[in-house]
User: Fold these one by one.
Assistant:
Number 1:
Amino acid sequence: MRTMIARWIGVATLGLGLATIPAMAQDLVVGLSAEPSSLDPHFHNLAPNNQLSAHIFGHLVMRAADQTLIPGLAESWRVVDPLTWEFRLRKGVTFHDGTPFTVDDVIATFERVPTVPRSPSNFSSYTRGRQITKIDDHTMRITTGVPSPLLPNDFTAVAIIPKGVKDATTEDFNARKTTNGTGPYRILDYVQGDRTVLERNDAWWGPKPHYKRVTLRVIRSEPSRVAALLAGDVDVIEAVPTTDVARLKADQRLSVFEATGSRLIYFKMEMNRSPAPFVTAKDGSRIDNPFLDRRVRLALSKAINREAIVARIMDGAARPAGQFVPDFIFGASPSLRPERFDLEGARKLLAEAGYPNGFRMTIFGPNGRYVNDTKVIEAIAQMFTRAGVDTAIETLPPANFFSRASQGADGWPEFGMYLTGWGSSTGEGSDPLRNIAASFDAANGFGQSNRSRYSNAKVDELLKKAIATMDDTERGKLLAETNNVAFADQAIVPIHFQVNIWAAKKGITVIPRVDEWTLLTGISKQ
Amino acid sequence: MTDIPLASSQINQGVPVIPKEETPFTRFRKAFVEDKVAVAGLILFSIIVALALLAPLITPQNPYDLRSVDIMDSRLSPGSKAGDGFTTWLGTDGVGRDLYSGILYGLRISLMVGALSGIIAASIGMAVGLTAAYAGGRVETILMRIVDLQLSLPAVLIALILVAALGKGVDKIIFALVVVQWAYYARTVRGTALVERRKEYVEAAQSLGLSNARVVFRHIMPNCLAPVIVIITVQTAHAIALEATLSFLGVGLPQTEPSLGVLIANGFQYMLSGKYWISFFPGLALLLTIVSINLMGDRIRDVLNPRLEK
Amino acid sequence: MLAFILRRLGQAMLVIGAMVVIVFFGVNVIGDPVWMLISPEMDQNAIEATKVALGLDKPIWEQFIYFVGGALQGDMGRSFVHGEPAIKLILSRMPATMELALVALLMAVFIGLPLGVYAGLKPESRISKSIMAISILGFSLPTFWVGLMLIMFFSVMLGWLPATGRGDTVRVLGIETSLFSWNGWTYIALPALNLALLKISLVIRLARAGVREAALMDYVKFARAKGLSQTRIVGVHILKNIMIPIVTVLGLEFGSLVAFSVVTETIFAWPGMGKLLLEAIQRLDRPVIVAYVMVVVVLFVAINLIVDVMYSILDPRVRLTEARA
């Protein structure tokens, strides 16, 4: 009996061993944290979609790991006059099916972008008002209605499709009928909700990626993703939970790769109405909106021990923040530092502002949207409470949170003070200023996420000047100045920048990226 | 005044002592204590309830008071000294909450949530199931279709809608758990009652002219109790675990007033990190509670079941 | 019998209708899908364009009428997130969930029933007490916690089974299934066990309770007196009698297995419709939620129908009463 069982186990483990047999040297399995909603590169402006598009379709301009712009399908670009850009396209590039890539494909792409039916968030903000004129097959001029220094940044978001599939539907792409690009990988198999299998495009114009066949598997549950790596099911994982970093670093069989990201975690406070929602005196009676006083905003910022949050909540995987973008990003101010923890100073400022006994409030935040978001909110509630502001917290599922944060029952943003995050999608500093710090002007695309309705004429003026300045150095200075003005006024209470973390089996190298993307071109074996 | 002793002495003298009629409760108690395991369960459960009730008196920290919880104390291993000077015998969690204090306070919430939601759901479920089985016809059809409706709605979706509509809180989660659970009882009770109502004793009761309510509640219901008690012991425990799952999905109880379920859900992300205590001790507390409930439940079921009497 | 089934189907349509109304408006209570779909940088024009493209610019009741109009013509709407027909998405994920629930159900029966019958026949034995004690574990720990423990033990420590995902699938009778390959079974073993644990405990308890009762019944005593073998008594007389509650409960539980697969599928990255539902709920992808609920209701009604028909087969005393009503 015993031998029979032993044999049975033997057979079982043998079979199982086969199931999890290490793949061939040029094969790679990557565990991703989120899945694309579609294979159509122009359907949904969502990070996982864009990340996959970068592999299959390719962009005119690309962002390096540190977010500086590098040539993609465009070899070079220059400003002809403030309203005209000239792009020279790479020669000898072919799509996966062998057709050569020319300006006509770019024109077709720009025609398709605004017309994708039922697109939940399309890419037309990158193409609108930009007229392409073909000079020759590999040269084009783009005229813009207003000076557009950020046009190359915008082009990092638009995936190029061949002109032949201009009229293809989203379903055609999902069925892999038209997933024909110039990218470093072509798609072999796609099982929605499970996996995407890619094969290296050996005709790609760039340096040949190391892995020939790559399976992208979506494992959303964080501990499961880590377990899959520990069990050897996957070779690389992205978005490593901060709690497990220490253990993975200590593991001889694994390597960990980190880069400070551009995603800022911060608090916003109601700056338009009085009284502020969910803010009362300690006895529950009505008080005027305390956030309208700059000293209160500064006091709250001083009450936060950012170093403690980084060390105790984020396990070191964050950097204290003092402005909208980390200092290595274009447009950051060299003079802004994270506010220092100063409990006495916070209490003093509150007293000066007329709140010697503090007040009472409920702060809100999403649960599961940002790294350790719930714990960060809870820790900050502790800190505010110690400074005299009795703080309760309410964390909500993101679906519920963002809806209420944007528009409550009365049509106004519902929360008085809440935590949220912002990652610069253009890879430079004007993006968060424009969306968060600029006065709310929905029609013109300013202050789109400025739910606190903060408004500072000086910020608006400097920012508008900056984004119309073609000269990079000059623009950088203006953006830094805008940051200075906004933070002198405590427009928001910044907490930290998240650190992006990857882990891989020993011997595999991952180039960690500021923008959280996992790019196969950056994964190699020593 | 003198009549009574006289009367009693007369009885004593006149006839042999008749054993005093046992009340059902005494009989139940005697049968219950026959099983040593069940008694152990009762003792364990009493200790747990006592600890939960006495929590404010015997814990070094009020885990609901953000002033006394400090992230500088986060993730201390069991036996370390916290910043306030007390020893955290079970360690602290990710935001610096003393786990011993957190568990005792959390027990109060979890026990309340489990018991209340179980009792309310079982009562509603039994009422619906019995009515459906006894009334039959159109009433049964309508009731059972409502049950179908309920059972096919995913619990997560219900909880999410309720949390969105009502907000977070203990009362809301109890409401959500009742909504999720009552239909199980209804379906099971109806199944058993359908069999019972065709038995001779029901016909006999009906032919005696007893009212419908009396037939249902005095005759059919006791005979349906066995499966209900099986489910209630399982389901009460399950309700506590379900609450943990809802917290895991972000729609459970508020973070700052954690139940055992919230503590376990929060500890989930530490399971691979080596900081075992953050999820282990709340899990152990949950396990002991549920084991004690079930040890008692098993015995109660055996004792109450009329058909097991020898 | 036929009239009974037809009547049931008619009722099912009503149930589905009621359900769609509840879910459609319920999702609306959670929040406005627009905020989950747009990218936060979009300007107001683009947001308005999205609303119009998805029909979210209209009042909710108008959206509902539009939906009903489409549904009557067989169009259940398209996923906001994926742009594909919602029913197609659900159906493409359904086989994975079904095979998971089926394997879990089989585990519940084939592990739970023998253990429960044994515990019922010898209630005082040490083994029986251990069975009962261990069965408590099955429902006292949250599914997500046990799931990760299973992964830790069998995948990370022992390295026997893959941690997450679904194995190779083959097409059998037009359905993609992973049950016809050894590789597929290695992948399904852990999630199915995780999903089955609660049901195993439940079956053990029901079987034990049923056997203990049945063992004292006159017909069993009579059978014993007649000198029938223990095997025959248990196998024929007792088992037949305890099957009714077990069939009821399992019938119900198959549905709850499908519903609870949400958590298991998330932990094990199992590409089934539970995971799809959770993602749809998180993104307020209403067409997918509504389609999911419709599919599940149809499934439940079918299962309940089968359970009721099984009643009448297992116990002739129960007639399909509604046929007369």
Number 2:
Amino acid sequence: MRIGSAKQTYAADEAIFKTNVQRAWFGALVALLILFPFVSSDYWQLLACLIAVNVIAATGLMILTGFTGLVSLGHAAFMGVGAYTAAYLSNHFALPFWLTIPAGGFAAAAVGAIFGIPSLRVKGLYLALTTIAASFILQSIFFNWTAVTGGARGLTIEPASIFGNALVTPGAIYWIAMPIAALTIWWARNLLRTRVGRAFVAIRDRDVSAELLGIDLLRYKLMSFALASFYAGMAGAVWVYLFRVITPESFRLIESIFFVAAIIVGGLGSVRGAIFGAVFMTLVPELLKIGASDLAPYWPDAVKLLSPVRTIVFGALIVGFLMFEPLGLNEICQRTRQRFALWPFRT
Amino acid sequence: MNPAFLDFIEFSLSGLSVGALYALTGIGFVVVYKATRIINFAIGEFMMIGAYFFFGLAAQAALPNWAAIILALIAAGTVGGFLERLIFRRLIGESAISVFMVTIGLASIMVGLVEIAWTADPRSLPTFLPDKPFFVPLGSAEAFLASKNGWSFIIVAAIMAAFITVFRFWRGGIALRATAADQQAAYSVGINVPGVFSFAWILGAITAAAAGILVGSISGISSAMGAIGLSVIVVVIVGGLDSLAGALVGGLMIGWLESMASLYIGGEYKQVATFVILLLVLVVKPYGLFGTRDIERL
């Protein structure tokens, strides 16, 4: 709550940017994102693309888990559906990326809606387990439907091209990944200000009450699953153009757990949380890697310990945030802002 | 004797012996769930640390097998008790999903620690089971059952019998069942409910560790062996999360079905078959075969 910002209309209350300071910061962020590829190395551009992909997928999962309250541990598998669809359409029909990426989203949405059907019958942890089942069943399809997925050997895909120029480097893919990430965040943010978004939140808070209020649970739960999977599918399709090789190994249960961990660490129940979480959880392993290679000259075991330490840090972040900061990075950010906004008063 | 039928019998026997281990681990899960309503996704990792403790004590510290087993079980129980006291007791009242995610995080931490202590390479446990295979007479032929599988089946049966006796007659077992039935009522008749929580975690960890040692002695250990936990989760869902009998029946059933799937469809479809069964059970009977139905009030 800011001092001296009493709202006088509902429109003002629902506005995304409430003050000019916020608009200025947002402008600075946009400028930074546009300038970024011109001043960074290939490595950081690749990382930025990966972050963009993870942000898209995490935003989708946030709609499903953070707003509708349905936990999914199959998100990476839906990402895989989008990835394979985009690769198949590109390889067999030579469709351009601006068609295959949405097509990947729609294919994943259809599959997601099918696996969302048990959510009508079971909820909470049981639902989490049915989505694990979805994850394994899709994984098995990726492995065994060799005609489409290339089986265990996987597929390779031609680079995306625009006006005949192939987009090969991460710096080029950045111009696909980042705008899509921005677009999907914008959709998600606006979705929550509509009837559909409020219906999702009502279902999360108490599904029985929501149904009594006239919200069609069947329709909205499936819609939430389809929407989340659509995001995952788009993320998967962008991912394919980034790496241009795809194997079933890329979409295992652990990747799905990664996305749930990302939105928990970021802060459940806010789009900003999804962004924070995806950025943070993508960067932490990379920072550990950099730290390990910096330590290696003085302590030869550092590189060998990297993989177990990453596993431990991943688990410790989940446990630590759930125990000590259940609202995640978003809450830390809000608290810090509050402190500055109210200074010199104590919060 | 028809060889196809002999195959069927042999696969059934080995499937049932794997199923018995699922059932034992499932019991470690159900005990914790009954008392505390926590879904312990780290159950496979509890098996793993039990097996690695045994490996460390028997193969590396060169203790006699019986002493190593006892110490490994005690160590696993201590880990379970500590985790309950330090983490899960503070999470009482948090949403079930958060606690579930905490167990996923713990699983990851345990895998990392084991990899630091013993590296990720697969190891084999010292043998402590007799190695004379079982031959089940079957008309003119004999069905073969590997010794380790047969003995672990017998050991599991003995542990199960002990469990049922404890739950039926011992005060602590009755206190646990009372807490499971109604926490408030258990408090008001003077049962130490937090104590029951600790006890359930210790017991669950010991049971899982025992299963882990048996699994490890059959197929070796590695830091990825916690993946068995997924099959165990399917077992307890099919059986009903809060039912010991359900874990027993579900374990034998899933073990047998996995074995049948690898005989008739192919080994790579084993896990998929399990999860298809899970989906079917959840759609038809969401609370499992023997689980208690939750009734929701507004």
Number 3:
Amino acid sequence: MSNVSFMHGNEAAAEGAIAAGCRFYAGYPITPSTEIAEILSTRLPEVGGVFVQMEDEIASMAAIIGASLGGVKSATATSGPGFSLMQENLGFAVASEIPCVIINVQRVGPSTGLPTKAAQGDVMQARWGTHGDHPIIVLTPSTVQESFALTVRAFNLAERFRTPVVVLMDAIVAQLKEKVILPERVEMECRTLPQGSAASYKPFAFGEGSVAPLAPFGGEYRYHVTGLLHDEHGFPTEDPEVVARWWQHMNTKLAAHLDEILDWEEEALDDADVAIVAYGGTARAAAHAVSLARSRGVRAGLFKPRTLWPFPEEAVRALSRRVRRIVVAEMNMGQVRLEVERLAAGRVPVEGVHRADGLGIRPEQIVAAVMAPLGRAA
Amino acid sequence: MNGDRLAISDWERLLATLELVRHSLPRGVTPIILSSLADAGPSPQWGSGFSFVHGPAGRNIALAVGLRAALPHVPLILAMNADSVTLGTNHLIHAARRNVGMTLLLLRSELTRSDASSGQDRTAWDLRGPQVSLEVPARPLEWASALDAALVGRACLDEPAELGALLLRALRKPGFSVLGVTTDRSLATGVLSECDWPEYFDRYREWARPLRENARTRDAPPAPPATARNVPRYEVRIAGVGGHGVKLAGTVLSEAAGFHEGLWATQRGDYGSATRGGPSSVDVVIGSERITYPCADDPDALVVLSQAAADRHAGTLKPGARLVADPAEVTRMPPNAIAVPIAAIAHEHTGKPIAAGVVALGCIAALTDAVRPDSLQRSLAANLPRASLDSNMAACAAGFAATRAALEGVRHG
């Protein structure tokens, strides 16, 4: 059994959160993400959850970390200005390995920017916004259906890898209404409880590609959580040997499971001469551009990452061996294009179609880049 | 450096009190300590009777809000000093005004020394140096009292029994409490103010109970019909200004196609930051194939409700496309525009300018058979309040009739 509904991306994200077991939301409303807060303010109490409008986004991020420590799946939603404020506590969640989900509906920045206009300018902020090296997972939906599915996935990955996960939406998908099919049930990653005794529990065990189960606070498992670099018990340490092992743990916990985390879609790439790399709302214009280009005799295809970070490096490397040209279309000045250029490593020309003026990229703009004579760009 | 910081730190002395308090709590209850004090960092040297969050300075209050939501019955003790009156002030104010259950221990007597009775003269600055003189000390205990905190009090760090008793009392009091912890014996101690009102999340759960019960009886929406018709991609744009109801019109049209006809449809609004008066438009794309690109860059049907909308959008029509314009608003009519007095029809049937979008839907229904009138009516019924449904249905029908009449006029004229 499933439900056919007609909703926008923000609503689908809110429903995805509920379906994935989110029972706490703290946020500060901001365009173009506001509907997520609005919907969860009534949906969460209906399912026994709690919604709190906090004083700002710093507090929102702190509160979802607190609720998650208490054993409740938690999320917040925001847009660029709020996402900037969240970076401090997002780093705390990374360092202390507390699962949580942050939905960032991107609008044009920097600063207040163009509040109601779509952009994809936070790709690098989502990767590196908080200080210090750190692993992070960032997912990006291009349809309302994906907004639901990737929000569910974000909660599952957050639990699975004890990490904050960012759902990087853009105002095109967030404000777009279309048909979705909501499953009656979704696959759900539940928090596993520690097996051993409270005395032997290591809440931050250094695994090679594994994380310790996170015991909810307030029960028999008592432990220390800190943003300082710490040992396996959560006690701060400056011992270089322990710090090195901490880094080894942090650097492998996602890297050892890329096959589980990376997700992308390929369309019409089998015989393609030109690959368009596009994600989020822009991928929709790119899909249209593929059919326009093909109707004009150019074999184009679409590579659409749904996981932005970790970046699907091997897949893009392989792509650069399959086609004669890559066009990257994104509503920023080239944040993913630089990644693609790095991975294409000069094998094929990589051309960007960029704009950050609040207008979405039009299919014809992409087609123009696709149809340009080969060999012009290098 | 500091007179009251001798061999052991405030934190270590406080810890002795916390241990005392822990043994007075019911078995199985593990208090959670939150602090960002440098010397309060979690350390294997001290007892394992607590869980501990060594969070970012000041943010521990907001973190505790989430913890309280998840754990209604676990004591939350926050040991703070300067961060309570700097980074944490805003969080303190909001946790206090909501009465979120937590107890703040404000260490360092200099922060809690000042009170109204001290008669401090704000005009007589101490000229020893700007760091100590150019401002009066913050008064977090008075702030908390002013915010009707459940309990505000003060105790001496050197009197563990007294401090422990006050802390226990604060922990048992539902809601937000603040205790000044001082080494200055000249200050008044004990409960300074008290206020009885429910803890925030207790009240929240009570408020939410009827919502939970109502939610169980909600019906699932009926399944839409499977699509049987072949409809090629059809792009519609309705453009006006905020207050014309174009977004609602887009919702009605796209749901009519996507939900009541079983086609694929997208709806995308474009609006500015202002709620009224700024440019506002909606794109609806309909077809029997899944819609990729959701913008009506080159619409098949365009309805413009203002001169600005006509100037901005009328130039991008594809060959064979239809354009409807309201001649009362659009004084420079684009060539081949179909004139329909949309605002006048909206006013006649509903008395409200916001019905212009619904009239525009009638116009579109007259231009294409991509969406059938009965689907449009069902979608209107699903999206409009019952009280205004009849008048909006009439406005939509009038838009349909006026557009048909204008088309006939074009054909026969």
Number 4:
Amino acid sequence: MKAFKAFLHFWITIASLLSFLGGWALLAHSKKPLQPVQSGQTAAVNIAPMPTLPPIQFFNGGAFSDTNNFTVNNNPAPVTSAPFLMTGGS
Amino acid sequence: METFRFRAMNTDVVMIAEGEFDRMAEGFEQARQFIQANEQRFSRFLDNSELTQLNRSAGTWFQASADLFTVVALAQQYFHQTRGLFDPSILPDLRRVGYDRSIDLMREQGAAPLLESLLANERPSFGEVQFDEARQMILLPQGMALDLGGIAKGWIAERAAILLSGFASACAVNAGGDMFLVGLPESLEHWPVALEDPLEAGAVLTTLKTGPGAVATSTVTKRTWKQGEISRHHLIDPRTGEPALTDWLSVTVIAAHADEAEVYAKALLIAGSRGAEQVAGDRSSQISYLAVDRHKNIWGSQKSLEHVHVS
């Protein structure tokens, strides 16, 4: 009986020690939490530049809701071998 | 893709076709003959044209050809549709402000001095023209004279393109900016149509993407002249009898038919930005229009966004 108690104490001691060391190793290799920004410090953040949106132009010469003013592409890609047709009145 | 150019109706005519070369050559020739024959019919500048004879007959019934009857009847339909902004009976006003000869002759000889004529509101309305469909006869009220220049040009271009399409897989007829497109060229998803800068002849403002159908442009910057010290242009506002005062320089219309495109380009240009929506009215879901102002800004109907590259 005495020998059994001694073995049990030894076993509990070893198991506790191994669990403690295993937990230590696991936490040592886990990701660190973000550090809070301290007052007085600045945090630089890189954000991709946003394109400037064209202004929405409303026709202001009368009640003319269906007509829009827009900027068109003045240099459309040339279409090779396309026929050349032009409209401009005569 | 072959191109054939010639001058008719006081403007440059360009025909483009794709297909078998010999067939296209025959198509070009037949379309050219069709255009020149109809120029003889619809010109107000030719003393023996059918239109001149109709104008002389005002006050009595006139036996018209099927084509003249069709175009005058169409013109009256558009007169009502545009609430009178398209009105071919403004010919006396055109003559009064000096446009009494072809533009080619006016550029050589100068404009005629201001003539006395009845004001627009003193003359009979184009709505009073009567038609006898069974006998194909037209009755112009006494004192009325018609200028079918624009609508006839569109109508002729469309008919010529349909004629040419019998000889080609795809084709286009462009009569001074009024054009009709049939089919699509192989390897293209749309016809590219350059929109000309109204302030710089030959310069391109942008390129429109159009499918088969019609494109027409009306402008106040091309047919211009001086009458004494006064600058004139050919677009008469039927409400005043004077060259239209409009904040737009040109209007381009894309529509199913060339006569409709031509008529609405003219009416929308006269109406300008303040009246365009009212003029487009019920047709705004069928036609697209783009207008260019004095600062080269392009204005357009919602539907026109289908045809432009917007950046």
